[in-house]
Structure formats: C-alpha cells, structure tokens
Amino acid sequence: MSFLKLIFVVLSCSLLVGCLGGGGGEANTSATDNTASDVGDTQDPNNPNDPSDPNDPSDPGDPQPDPGPQPGDIVEQSEGVQGVTYPEPGTTTVNFDRNPKIEPNSDNVKPIIAITHHPANYIPNTSGTIELWAADNDNGIGLQSISCDIDGSGYSDCSEQVDLTNLSEGLHTIKARAIDYDDNESGEVSYTFYVDTTPPQVIITQAPEPMNSESQAQFQFSSNDDGSGVSHYECSVDGGGFSQCQESQALDDLSEGNHNLVVRTVDSVGNQSSEVSHNWVVDQSAPVIQVNKRPANQIYTGSVAVVNYSVTDTYSPNGITVMCQLNGMAVSCAADQDLSIPSSSPMNYNFVITATDAIGNSSQRSIQWESVNIAENRTTNQSVGEDRPVDILFVIDNSGSMDYERENLAERIDGMIDKIKDLNWQIAVTSTDMTNNDFKSNGRLLEFEGMSGTYVLNPSMNAAQAQYSFGQTIQNFGNGSGTEEGILASKKVIERAVAGEAPHRDFIRDGADLSIVVLSDEDEASNGSGVDTSPQQFVNFVNNTYNGQKNMVFHSIISRPGDQACANGEGYNVGHTYDELSRLTGYGELGGAIIGSVCELDYTSQLADIGQSVKDLQNSITLDCNPFDSNSDGTPDVSISYRANAGSQYQSYSASYQVQNRKLIFDDLLPPGDYKVDYQCRIN
User: Fold this and answer.
1) CA 640 from chain center: how many Å?
2) Where are the extended beta strands (E) located within 72-119?
3) Would you tell me the crossing angle of helices 576-584 and 486-498 to the nearest 10 degrees?
4) What is the DSSP pairing of strand 389-396 with strand 513-519?
5) Phi/psi at 265 (nearest 5 deg)?
6) What number of other Cβ atoms are within 10 A of residue 645's Cβ?
C-alpha cells in the first residue's frame, strides 16, 4: 500500500468501529454488527425505551453513553508509514531486524500494527487465533517487539500469532501495539468478539388443545439467545425429520389419531436448543356403543327386559359421558352396564343410549321392544278310565329283503307286551305295500294266522297264542313291493277306520292312544324321494282327523341316520323320513317315539322301550299347547285338579310329573277319574 493510501486508511478508520471486521476471520474495511448498538450510540442498554436513542426520529442527535466495544469491533489508531505495504491475510511475516543504517535515537516515526486475521464476531468454541502484522517505516530503525493486552490483563510481549484458549463465555477484546528500537510506540489496535457456547431457549406459546377434532393446528414459538442471537427454528412432525420452520407454524390435513410436534431453535453460531414437544390427539369419531344383550322384539308382560351394553372410545376412553332415556324419561346409566327393565303392562318401549366423548363427539343407539300379553288361559279336561286303552299298529316292510328282520321282531314281541300288560291294548298289522290292491296291501289289516277272522289282538286272548299268531302272520304274508310306504299305509289305515270299514273301525277306538311301529330297511318311497305324505303332513292329518284329541306316536325300527355301518353292511337305504316323523312325535321324551335300529341282532330292548313308551303315554295328559311360563320362574305354570269317578268336586292333584312340550307325563299311572288342567297358551 502506498503511503498516501495508508494515510487515507488511517484518516478514515482511526477511532471507528468496523474498518477491519469479522465474518470471514479476515481484516476488512466494512464490518456489520447485527446485535450491538453502533459505536457512538449512547442509549442506555438497560432501558430500551430511553428517549435519548439517536435512532429515534423523535429526538435526533440526543447523545448517549458509549456502550463499549461490541463483537466484531476493530479499532485502529495506528498511523500509516511511508513505503509500507500490508501483507495478505495468512501470509503474515514480521521483520524484527534492526536497521544498521540508522543511528540510535534518530527515528522519530511510530511503527504501525494491524490485525490481519481474527475469529468471527461470534464463535461457539473457547479458543481462537489472532494474527498481527507490524512494521517500521522504510527508513526506520526497525521493529523491536509486539505487545498484547487480552481482556484488560495488561500489556505483555506477544508474537504475531496469538492463540487464545480456555476462553470464557462472553465478550473478549485483544489489544496490540508495536514498539521500534527507538521505543517509538505505535497506535493501539483492538478486536472484540464473543464466545457463545450457551444454546438458545425455545418455548411453545400457542398449540392445539391436547384433544380436539380439528384437522388443522396452529403453533407459535418464542425463543431467546443472549449471545449470537437466534438464527432459525427447526420442527419435526409426527416423528419425521427436522426441517426449518417459522415461529408461526400451521399444519393442515391432519389425520385422526395421535400427533406430535417437536421444535428446537439454532443460534447464529450453530448452538442448538433443547427440544420442546407438544402431543395432541385429533379425535373425529364418536364413541362406539356396543349392544351385547337386548330384549326380543316382543316380550311377555310381567317379565323383565335385560339390556347390556358397553361404550368404548379409541382416543378418550376415560372421558365418556353416557346418558340414557326410557320412553323419553332419564334413566341412570354408566358406560358399561346391565339394566333390568320391568315390563309391567302392554306397551312399546324405546331405550336410547347417548354417549359423548371428552370433546363433544356424540353417538346414539336406540333399542326398541314391545311388551304384550301373548298368553291366554286354557283348560284341558281328560277322563281316565279303568281300561286305559291304547291301539298299536305295526306297519311291516313285506319286501323280500326283510325275512330275517321280521323273524327277529316276531321272536321278541313278548318284551313289548310284558310292558303294557296292565293296559287295555290292541295290536293290528298292515304292510308297507301300497302298490297292490290285494288283502295284504293298501292299508288293509292282516288276518292273524291260526285265528280265523281275527284282525286285532287284545289282552283277553291267550298270550302265547297271540304272540305265536303275530309271529306267523308277519313272517308269512309274502313278498310285497320294494317301494315301501309306511307313512302312507298308516294314513290309509286311519282313513279306513274313519270311513267305518271293518275291522279298522273296531281297531282305532275313541279315546285310545295310537302308537304306530314301522319296521323297514328302506326309507319312505324306498329312498325318501317322491314321498306322498310328508312327516308334518301326517301329524297334521291325525290332529285334524281327531280334533287334536288323539295321542299319536310314530316309532321307527329303521336304518338310522348316522349309522353308516348298518346301511353299508346290508345295502339298506337310510330312513330319513321315518326318523323325521319319530322326532316330530316326541323322540327323546317320556311317552315319545323310539328310534330303533333294523340292524340289531336282538330286538328285545328296542321292543321293550317301545312298550315302556306306550305305557308312559298312558300316564300323560295332552294339552292344547306347550304350557306357558307366565311368571318367568323357569317352570310352566300348570294347575291340576282331580275328581274321582264317584266324586262331585275337583280337588288339587299334586302327583309328580314332567312337562314335555304339550304333554304332562306323570311318574305313576293316573287313578281313574276326571282331570282338569289349567294353564296358559301363547296367543301368537
């Protein structure tokens, strides 16, 4: 640099801040301080509202105290020297040689000194390097030394490179001057910078409520930093990476569920604040009301309607409010509860559950039912005579494949007769053959062999003779059609009796129970297809024919469903249709149908079971309906009265019995007399 240029620098920079300043760590002629007041601004730093602020246009020129050096300030008081050129930064070389051509005490020109490299205005670490350059004038005696004052510690010799370590947080100022061999002392040069190792602080000043239904969220942040100042904010949303954000941050299109925002701030030297987070839930769904138990659409008057429900909410399980109303009246209820509601009179009921979560999302469930009188009083009268009549019709498969089975039945019939010996029984036989029109088919009763003109067996006959004749008859009535129709044959027998044909009219007696026993290795119509009369049609036929006053049970000795070994072993067709009819007439109940196996080697137990069922049927009273449990105690409400044949008044009858569908089955034989049963039947 020429002497004239140097003089210009000195004149323009002397006592000014910023001629050599800091962003790149290199001396320069323009420095910007973003955090400190300009040199010469005498505003009170402790009172930002001081009206003497020279930057306030309301009081221009109002002098203020000097706040002192600020980060980035360079103050040069060194005078220029002719013929001295400033070095480039980083190439500092200081010549401390004495000029032998100059006599001592003949140099009266001050040396010069400059800062050629320095830390940035603000640094985040506790060390830094200052590079100094000094020189004497071309005709001077030469530079003797450089001395430095660090943070007011006093001047002492230093080198042209000063390494600063263990610097504390805050402002630091290094001053330097040069001395030549004639003790001429340069002006003072100084540089001030700030060590900033303290992270900034950030707080969230505005955030969404911890639970809300909004798909948008608005955040406001605030931060402060006493050092280099806040540079920017960084945000992470729902676990994503951090990216730069503004102090006012809006989030849109938020999905329902849990959300999280984390914010941090970074100061101008890279110090990063602690992370501050906010969690919230976007809840746009109403609570779920699950009805676990509800009354039937119609319940009986006098019964109790039980309602069980539970209320759940995904996002606010503990903030649910539940209100209930029954026909518009408030009912106390909770989020998970059993409610028992008496139905005292016939009416419509409407039970409404309303559930609201913590932020107001609401759902509602309505449960409706009707309480009705669905039962009416009924009375059944039955007279029990001394004879206890029962008519037993055997419908025998007379096809050629049944010889062994008919023989088995014939040899074991005594087991059944022994069970019914106390009853007034009758036994008749017909075949399953409905294709021919001869004496042994089409629902005709067979004449018993060896008993001319006899078509019906009864207890008055010699038991041995009756059993023998029964056996001979069912074994020797020839081979009939292979299309067995036991149900249709039974129907034809009843039709002939109703029409008054002999001997049918004498076999099916008024007031007598009717037990039908079919023995066949095939199903109705051989394989169950093309059946003329279905099981339900046959039951309806009997009820209609006898106005519901005839107890009829249909027993089956067949190839039973599920017994594949029986069907495969003999090549039988499974008797599905016969099985269905037996189940319709009380299979599994006392006095109900027995389903036996045609494959049994010995029919003794099966026939004995049929005999016992016939006997149990005599111990029963058949009602118009399944008796109704009007008080909901689990037992049908039945009242039985009895009047002996010679008596004139009914008395309560308390013998032990069981209720099986429409039947009252008594443990013991009913004494002769008149019985009156009071009960209730459902209306619909």
Assistant:
1) 53
2) 74-76, 112-117
3) 50
4) parallel
5) -125, 155
6) 12
The whole-angstrom separation of Cα 503 and Cα 655 is: 38
Q: What is the pLDDT of residue 399?
A: 81
* Side-by-side strand order, sheet with 248-251: 201-206, 217-224, 248-251
In angstroms, the CA 386 to CA 672 distance is: 6
Cα 206 to Cα 178, 203, 250, 495, distances in angstroms: 57, 9, 11, 94
Highest mean pLDDT among 44-58, 126-140, 154-168: 154-168
What are the backbone angles phi and psi of residue 617, rounded to the nearest 5°?
Answer: -60, -30
Residue 103 φ then ψ, to 5°: -75, 145
Query: Which has the higher per-residue pLDDT, 162 or 616?
Result: 162
Query: Whose CA is closest to 445, among 497, 480, 367?
Result: 497
Residue 51 pLDDT grade (very low, low, confident, very high; cuts 50, 70, 90): very low
Alpha carbons 524 and 533: distance in angstroms, whole number: 9
**Cβ(195)–Cβ(123) below 8 Å:** yes
User: Cα separation of 362 and 352, whole Å?
Assistant: 13
Number of C-beta neighbours around residue 634 at 10 A: 6
What's the CA gap between 223 and 156, in Å, rounded? 42
DSSP helix, strand, coil percent of the chain (3-state; round to 5)? 15, 35, 50
User: For residue 289, which of 329, 325, 257, 322 has the smallest C-alpha distance?
Assistant: 322
Phi-psi region of 540 (alpha: psi -120 to 50; beta: other; left: phi over 0): alpha
Question: Quick check: 302 pLDDT over 50?
Answer: yes
pLDDT interval class at 76 (50, 70, 90): low
Which residues are paired to 367 by β-bridges?
351
Question: Is 50 in contact with 56 (CB distance < 8 Å)?
Answer: no
CA distance 266 to 232: 6
Question: Measured between alpha carbons, how far is 639 from 379 in angstroms, rounded to an integer?
Answer: 9
Judge whether 176 and 65 are in contact, CB under 8 Å. Answer: no
Greater model confidence, 38 or 477: 477
Round to whole Å and give the CA distance between 220 and 70: 31
Instruction: Give 639's strand partners.
Output: 678
- Residues with Cβ < 8 Å from 502, sequence gap 6 or more? none
